């Protein structure tokens, strides 16, 4: 009898997993508690894959041999809890896809910067002529690519949610950028649970593999002592210390790997700001480990155009720069954004609070922020923290109102920064919708 696979959640990840499972000859059902987008229904129908929406047929799901769960779905939903009680294995799409490919996996995680680093690493490999796919949180589903358009290399962005249900998957090159509080509502509000999730990226690595990480992250430093990675370690930092393999020296970035020593003028990097220096170092180390030619690395590090919704310059209106950092869904992301600002700032923040601690940005706000605009349905926690610390505080119930208020408050030479610290689900579909609305209203000024 055929193995029975149930996919819970029918987005990019779930649909891709279903297509791979069907291609491998399994009996497949895709089940989504919400409605399934038309394009995914068409993909499933074209391959004769059964699906249901608007609820789960419990008897069928609980008769599965394995369940593949989409990363956005918590482990605490009733059907998953029941499956676990029945000891049905629950795994992620990445774990499932990893069974059916021998391709080299470059995997990137971190609380901040992972999309930029993923896109930059992919850009370097692709421009160097490698057969490379982009997967995980960006690009197409890894499972879909393994099933229908396989590549020799994959660059995979992994969130903690994807890492949680990975067991045998192996990252040949693992990049861990940083660990700061995020998504704690999914981790019983216990930071250690979230840290443990991030460190799953080095699970199953061997001495043939590489582990690239930020040397100065105190949490990573502490956890490395506990985890004792077996892979070759490539720490990076802003300045040289004993053992660091990527750093800046005399305005040049230096990357020292077993293959050779790579150097490049720092001011030639396409991405600016300290956080982007780290992203460039991590991507550069990965490229050197893969043995990409120096001239290819240099060209790609200098012509990369960045990631939408991450410190994206939208327009200059009457001498004021408008910057879209809608992807900053946690406080540490906003800290990086403020750190990179060289002007006075009108800061738009707010949304669905995930248990944020705003103390992390307090000093930068006091130093750099002219005015705060709280954009959300419930801004109580923002008021509790910031009232009395910034002279000008306004509220906005829509992006149009927020942009118009920012336009009134900003002075020539200022920057208006959308860096919300929060998830977007109170007023927007997602962070992309939030960023796109910001750009639209700015361009309408």
Question: How would you summarize the topology of this molecule?
Answer:
Elements: E1 4-8, H1 12-23, E2 27-32, H2 38-46, E3 50-53, H3 58-61, E4 66-69, H4 78-85, E5 90-91, H5 93-98, E6 104-109, H6 114-127, E7 132-136, H7 142-148, E8 153-157, H8 160-164, E9 173-176, H9 191-198, E10 210-214, H10 218-227, E11 232-236, E12 246-249, E13 252-256, E14 261-265, H11 274-289, H12 294-303, E15 312-317, E16 320-324, H13 331-339, E17 345-349, H14 359-368, E18 369-375, H15 380-386, E19 392-396, H16 399-409, E20 415-418, H17 431-443
Parallel strand pairs: 1-2, 1-4, 2-3, 4-5, 6-8, 6-9, 7-8, 9-10, 10-11, 16-20, 17-18, 17-20, 18-19
Antiparallel strand pairs: 12-13, 13-14, 15-16
Describe this structure in words.
There is one protein chain. The protein has 445 residues and is of the alpha/beta class. It has three domains: 4-91, NAD(P)-binding Rossmann-like Domain (Rossmann fold), CATH 3.40.50.720; 95-303, 3-Layer(aba) Sandwich (UDP-N-acetylmuramoyl-L-alanine:D-glutamate ligase); 312-443, Mur ligase, C-terminal domain (Protein-Tyrosine Phosphatase, Chain A, Alpha-Beta Complex), CATH 3.90.190.20. Helix content is 36%, strand content 22%. Helix 9 (191-198) links the parallel strand 9 and strand 10. The longest helix has 16 residues, at 274-289.
Number of strands: 20
What is the number of helical segments per DSSP (H or I, 4+ residues)? 17
Number of domains: 3
CATH class descriptor of the largest domain: Alpha Beta
CATH topology of the largest domain: UDP-N-acetylmuramoyl-L-alanine:D-glutamate ligase
Pairing-aware structural class of the strands and helices? alpha/beta
Strand content: 15-25%
Proportion in helices: 25-40%
CATH superfamily of the largest domain: Mur-like, catalytic domain
From the alpha carbons, calculate the radius of gyration and give it in angstroms: 22 Å
Mean pLDDT: 94
Q: How does the major sheet shape up?
A: 6 strands, parallel
Question: Distance between termini?
Answer: 63 Å
- Biggest sheet: strand arrangement: 7-8-6-9-10-11
CATH architecture label of the largest domain: 3-Layer(aba) Sandwich
Global geometry = globular
Poorly predicted tracts of residues: none
């Amino acid at each position: 009898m055929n193995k029975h696979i149930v996919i819970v959640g029918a987005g990019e990840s779930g649909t891709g997993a279903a297509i791979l499972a069907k291609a491998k000859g399994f009996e497949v059902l895709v089940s989504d508690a919400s409605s399934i987008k038309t394009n995914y229904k068409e993909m499933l129908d074209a391959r004769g894959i059964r699906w249901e929406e608007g609820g789960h047929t419990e008897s069928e799901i609980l008769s599965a041999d394995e369940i593949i769960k989409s990363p956005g779905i918590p482990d605490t939903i009733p059907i998953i809890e029941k499956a676990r009680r029945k000891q049905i294995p629950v795994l992620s799409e990445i774990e499932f896809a990893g069974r059916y490919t021998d391709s080299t996996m470059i995997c990137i995680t971190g609380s901040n910067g992972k999309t930029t680093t993923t896109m930059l690493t992919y850009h370097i490999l692709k421009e160097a002529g490698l057969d490379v796919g982009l997967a995980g949180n960006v690009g197409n589903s890894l499972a879909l690519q393994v099933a229908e358009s396989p590549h020799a290399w994959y660059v995979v962005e992994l969130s903690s949610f994807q890492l949680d249900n990975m067991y045998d998957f192996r990252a040949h090159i693992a990049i861990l950028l940083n660990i700061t509080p995020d998504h704690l509502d999914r981790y019983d509000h216990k930071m250690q649970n979230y840290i443990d999730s991030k460190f799953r990226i080095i699970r199953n690595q061997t001495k043939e593999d590489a582990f690239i990480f930020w040397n100065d992250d105190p949490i990573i430093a502490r956890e490395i002592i506990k985890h004792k990675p077996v892979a070759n370690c490539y720490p990076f930092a802003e300045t040289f210390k004993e053992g660091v393999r990527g750093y800046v020296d005399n305005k040049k970035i230096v990357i020292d790997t077993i293959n050779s020593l790579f150097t490049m003028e720092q001011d030639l990097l396409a991405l600016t700001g300290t956080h982007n220096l780290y992203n460039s170092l991590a991507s550069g180390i990965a490229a050197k480990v893969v043995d990409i030619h120096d001239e290819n690395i240099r060209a790609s590090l200098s012509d990369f155009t960045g990631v939408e919704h991450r410190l994206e310059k939208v327009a200059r209106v009457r001498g004021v720069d408008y910057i879209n950092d809608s992807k900053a869904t946690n406080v540490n992301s906003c800290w990086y954004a403020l750190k990179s600002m060289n002007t006075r700032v009108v800061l738009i923040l707010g949304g669905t609070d995930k248990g944020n601690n705003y103390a992390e940005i307090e000093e930068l706000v006091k130093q750099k922020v002219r005015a705060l605009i709280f954009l959300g349905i419930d801004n109580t926690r923002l008021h509790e923290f910031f009232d009395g610390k910034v002279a000008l505080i306004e509220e906005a119930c829509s992006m149009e109102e927020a942009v118009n208020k920012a336009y009134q408050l900003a002075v020539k030479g200022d920057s208006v920064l959308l860096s919300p610290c929060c998830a977007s689900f109170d007023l927007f579909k997602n962070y992309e919708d939030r960023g796109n609305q910001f750009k639209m209203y700015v361009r309408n000024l």
